[in-house]
Design brief:
alpha/beta; ABC transporter transmembrane region fold; 2 domains; 6-stranded mixed beta sheet; 22 helices; 9% strand; transmembrane helix; ABC-type transporter activity; nucleotide-binding
């Protein structure tokens, strides 16, 4: 499919720019109003036409029966030759009308199905794309707090539940309203008593159905939660199958899962038993209504106050009304359940973005690539700044254009947090960060991300081919259209071409979920190749060579030196041997920069950095094993 075809199927600009409401009704109405209103009206008209014509069937049936009986209240006439019925003009007229109503009603129903064919799939697509568009703009913290599989499932469920809700609104409810209006009109013309019975029973039946459905919904949710719990437990065991095998815990895990599934069975039995009782009483109520209505009609016909044709009309009307009311009552549970599913999905997904990125913001224009942190303040949610919970409390730092800066220090010093703040993955509580004099909080997030290439410690790879994962660093849509030569050149510079070409499928090798088919070092080299191809003016390395063997690390270090040229570089490292050639090394502790200088200057200072260096190169020698100067002279 071409890119133009793809773009034409995306939501309209009015939809994509409109804020998403969290109310299920307002959410559904927004999509219907802005893209599907005409089709929704056609669905309603087609449903009304189909049931409306079917509702006129009792009229045709009354006329046909009265025509066959000759006179109202008389029996079947015998005024025709033996064995040869007489088709009078009146009988033929009513017969053709009855057949025509059936055919026309069927055509309206098929028309509705045709309109729905071009409505439901497109509406589901628009809802899912729009929800995913909102979802993907949430902050990294949001995705850390929620399971990825659950989020994807909520997006799919929202689209499906919205379709089912719309189906009930534009079909079942419309059919009930129309058939009740026709039924009341016809029954009032016969007897007011029948009209009162119809309205009273319908209201009572649907009210009872709604009350029982709400009660059943609580049992359904309890069963759904039990299923989710057992499914999560099962997935957890499968994901840790190697651990289960290593500790010979198969029987214990199986026993625990069996106990959990027993709870699921109990909730299922409760739900099924309630449904059985609910359908029993509701269906019996329908039968009682029809029996009473038809019984009264029989009494009226025998008393001569109703023709045989009117009796046939009431009998047919009772059947049509009862069938449609029963159909809606059985859909009540599904209606409330799908409403709950849609509401739950919106509650989880349609939340205000922690880091807003409203449309219309200017793009970041990067020239030299200077970076300045001005008095930044940041604390993770839930931490108490008064008890030392702040990560940064007034940190300032300037990185000159093209400068290569390394961040070192113990875990928890704030190194990775500083980089994430630069990427605008966390919101600042104070201060600002500037790139080439532009506040990154005031530019579009997409342009900021285009300006920064990052090679993380644990690279993320798609369950796609190696070629697609490397090409993802290009400016093309999803990496499509990138020249194969450019991909291979990037792979060669990252020294991953040898292991790629050593696989049977080569660059078309699918790496598995999160790159599980590759080793840690291979994943990092693919990520480095992706950074080569992105060619961003600012480069961030977060332990980019931590999973490489010594020989490969040496090759990558050479490759990175080429990548450093003309770029501003921030590198986080725990192995100090990887940053000795950087222009500046910042030693950090508890969100503060304690030392700033190049490798040689920091060694001469004999401070925290020097002590850390001594532990690493000296094999964890004690601090009194000699000064750096002594060690350098000894070497």
């Amino acid at each position: 499919m071409s890119s133009s075809q793809h773009s034409s199927s995306l939501p309209s600009s009015s939809l994509s720019s409109s804020p998403l409401p969290s109310s299920p009704w307002r959410f559904l109405w927004m999509f219907v109003r802005d893209g599907f209103l005409g089709r929704a009206i056609l669905l309603n008209l087609a449903a009304a036409g189909g049931i409306g014509l079917m509702g006129l069937e009792p009229v045709a049936m009354r006329g046909l029966v009265d025509a066959l009986t000759g006179l109202p209240g008389a029996g079947l006439s015998g005024n025709h030759p033996s064995g040869s019925p007489a088709w009078t003009a009146e009988v033929m007229r009513w017969f053709l009308l009855l057949g025509g109503l059936w055919i026309a009603s069927a055509l309206f129903n098929r028309l509705r199905e045709l309109v729905d064919l071009h409505t439901s799939p497109a509406l589901r697509h628009a809802i899912q794309v729009r929800l995913f568009d909102h979802l993907i703009d949430h902050s990294p913290r949001y995705f850390q707090d929620n399971f990825a599989g659950n989020l994807g499932q909520k997006v799919k469920q929202a689209g499906q539940s919205a379709i089912q809700i719309l189906e009930i609104l534009t079909n079942d409810i419309i059919r009930i309203v129309v058939i009740l209006a026709i039924g009341l009109t016809l029954l009032v013309s016969a007897q007011t008593l029948f009209a009162g019975l119809l309205v009273g029973w319908t209201v009572a039946h649907l009210t009872l159905s709604a009350l029982l459905a709400r009660r059943c919904l609580r049992l359904s949710h309890a069963f759904s939660e039990e299923v989710s719990s057992t499914t999560g437990r099962m997935v957890d065991i499968i994901a840790n199958a190697e651990l289960v095998r290593a500790f010979a815990r198969r029987r214990q895990e199986l026993a625990g899962l069996s106990d959990a599934l027993t709870g699921e069975i109990d909730r299922s039995k409760e739900l099924r038993w309630f449904l059985t009782k609910m359908w029993f009483w509701l269906f019996n109520a329908l039968l009682v209504f029809q029996i009473i209505l038809i019984g009264l009609a029989v009494s009226e016909a025998m008393a001569g106050r109703m023709s045989i044709g009117e009796f046939a009309m009431i009998f047919s009307l009772a059947s049509i009304v009862g069938t449609n009311v029963w159909g809606l009552s059985t859909r009540m549970l599904g209606f409330f359940e799908q409403l709950g599913v849609l509401s739950g999905a919106l509650d989880l997904i349609v939340r205000p973005h922690e880091i807003p990125d409203p449309p219309g913001r200017p793009d970041l224009s990067v020239g030299d690539g200077s970076i300045r942190f001005e008095d930044i303040r940041f604390a993770h949610p839930g931490s108490d700044p008064e008890t030392g919970g702040s990560v940064f409390d007034g940190l300032s730092l300037t990185i000159r254009p093209g400068e290569r800066v390394a961040l070192v220090g113990p875990s928890g010093a704030g190194k990775s947090t500083l980089v994430r703040l630069l990427r605008r993955q966390f919101p600042l509580q104070g201060g600002r960060i500037l790139i080439d004099g532009q506040d990154i909080a005031a530019v579009s997030l997409a342009s900021l991300n285009r300006a920064v290439a990052e090679v993380p410690q644990l690279p993320s790879l798609f369950h796609r081919s190696i070629r697609d994962n490397i090409a993802y660093g290009s400016e093309g849509p999803d990496g499509k259209g990138v020249a194969d030569e450019a991909i291979r050149a990037a792979a060669a510079r990252a020294h991953c071409d040898r292991f790629i070409e050593g696989r049977a499928a080569g660059y078309d090798t699918v790496v598995g979920e999160r790159g599980i088919q590759l080793s840690g070092g291979e994943r990092q080299r693919v990520a480095i190749a992706r950074a080569f191809l992105k060619d961003a003016p600012v480069l961030v390395l977060d332990e980019a060579t931590s999973s490489l063997d010594s020989e490969t690390e040496h090759l990558i270090q050479d490759a990175l030196l080429g990548l450093f040229e003309g770029r501003t570089v921030i590198a986080i490292a725990h192995r100090l041997s990887t940053v000795t050639g950087m222009d500046r090394i910042l030693y950090m502790e508890k969100g503060r920069i304690l030392e700033d200088g190049d490798h040689a200057a920091l060694l001469r200072r004999d401070g925290p950095y020097a002590r850390l260096w001594r532990r690493q190169v000296g094999g964890f020698l004690p601090d009194d094993a000699g000064s750096i100067t002594d060690m350098e002279e000894a070497r």
